[in-house]
Amino acid sequence: MKIITISREFGSGGRELGKRLADELGFAYYDKEITSQIAKEVEMDEEYVEHMLSKGIPHRFGITYASSFGYPTYTQFDTTKLLVAQQKILKQVARDGNCVIVGQCASVLLKDLNPLNIFVYASMESKIKRCIMRANNKDELDEKTVKKMIKDIDKSRVKQHDLHSDTKWGDKTGYHLCINTTDVEIKNIVPSVAQYAKEWFNK
Amino acid sequence: MKIITISREFGSGGRELGKRLADELGFAYYDKEITSQIAKEVEMDEEYVEHMLSKGIPHRFGITYASSFGYPTYTQFDTTKLLVAQQKILKQVARDGNCVIVGQCASVLLKDLNPLNIFVYASMESKIKRCIMRANNKDELDEKTVKKMIKDIDKSRVKQHDLHSDTKWGDKTGYHLCINTTDVEIKNIVPSVAQYAKEWFNK
C-alpha cells in the first residue's frame, strides 16, 4: 500500500497540494473525513473531537491542570480513547488502498507502514498572502490578525505532534521531502511531486 | 539565467544529485572547479584556498586568535580577498548560463539572482553506508571513523556558511526544496527533481 502523508504550516497550501496530488496519482484523499470517522468510532461530537485533537492536550495532564489553565475539563479517559481511535482509523484507511492523508500526525502514527512523508512550508509573508487570497471575507482580514491565526494554528499542530513523537514538528529529519511554497503556484508543482512520489515508492 | 544550488550533508549523495541533475537539464555543472578559479583569481595555491574556505575562519579573528587555536596564521587580508574572489567567480559562472553549483555557499552568495536552492540530507546511518560504499579503501574504513569524518566536514560547512549568512546551514527556511536521500538511489529521483526545477522556474 502506498501512503503519502502531508504535514504543513497553516497557509502554505499543503492541503491543496495533498488534494491535487491524490487526484494526479489516483489515490484516495483523507483530511477532515478522518475526524468524522474518529467521532463516530468513539461516539462523541465531531466538533469536540476536532477541538481535542487540535489542542493536543497531553493525557498526563489531568482534570485539575486543564481546569486551572482554562481548558474544558477533558477527562484523561476521553483523550486516551481518542488517540487510540485516531490511530485505529488511520490504519483502517491506510489498509483500504493507496492514499494521501493531510494532517492527523499520520507521518508518525503510520510510521510502520513506511509512508512518504512530505512537509509543506512557506515564508510568513507568503502564508499571510495565501490566507487572505482564499478567504471569503477578505475585507475584514488584516495582516496582523491572519499572522496571529497562523501562529496559533501551527502551535496546536506542534502540540498534537508532541503527543505522539519525540521528533520536532517541521524538523526536516522527520520527513522525506520538504517543499517551500513561497511564491509558488501549487498546481504548477503537482506533476513533479507526483513523479517524485512514484520514483520514491520504487526506490 | 537559471541557477540551481545544491547544499548537502556529507555522504548524502548531494554531489551525485547535482551532477546528474545538470546532465538531465543540460545545465553546466560546477563543484571543485570554482575553487580552482578562485585560486587563479587570487594567485594562491589551490589546496590552501580550499582549506581556508572549508575551515571558514571568520575574518574578524585575527592572527593571534588563529595561532592560539592552532590554525595556520591566515592573515585577515587573505580571508577577505578570498571571500571577495569567491563571490566574484560565482557571479561569473552564473552569468555564463544555466548551471548547477554544488557547495560554495552559492545559495547565499547568489541570492540576488534567485537561484533554486536545494538541500540534500540523510540519516547518519545512511550517510555512513553511502560513504563506505563509494570509498576505494572500504576495508580500512570503520563506521566510527566515517561518522567522525562526516561530522567534521559538516562542521566546516556550517562555519563556511556562517561567514556569509544569518540563517542556519541546513535550516529548511533557507532552501526551496529539501530532499532526504535515506535509502534512496540517487539516480532514481533525478527525473522528478529535474521536472520540479523546470516547474519551479516557471512558477
Question: How would you describe the overall organization of this protein?
Answer:
The structure is a homodimer of 203-residue chains. Chain A is built from 9 helices and 5 strands, in the order E-H-E-H-H-H-H-E-H-E-H-H-E-H. Chain A is α/β, with parallel strands linked by helices. Chain A starts with a strand and ends with a helix. Strand 5 of chain A pairs antiparallel with strand 5 of chain B.
DSSP E strands of chain A, number: 5
Rg of chain A, please?
A: 17 Å
Largest interface: A-B, 28 and 28 residues
Helix content of chain A: 55-70%
Q: Could you tell me the mean pLDDT of chain A?
A: 87
Categorize the overall geometry of chain A: globular
**Into which percentage range does the β-strand content of chain A fall?**
5-15%
Please count the helical segments of chain A: 9
Order of strands, main sheet of chain A, comes to 2-3-1-4-5
Assembly type of the chains comes to: homodimer
Helix and strand element order of chain A: EHEHHHHEHEHHEH
**Low-pLDDT residue intervals, each spanning 5 or more residues of chain A:** 58-67
Largest sheet of chain A: 5 strands, parallel
Taking the alpha carbons of the first and last residues of chain A, their distance comes to: 14 Å
Main structural class of chain A = alpha/beta
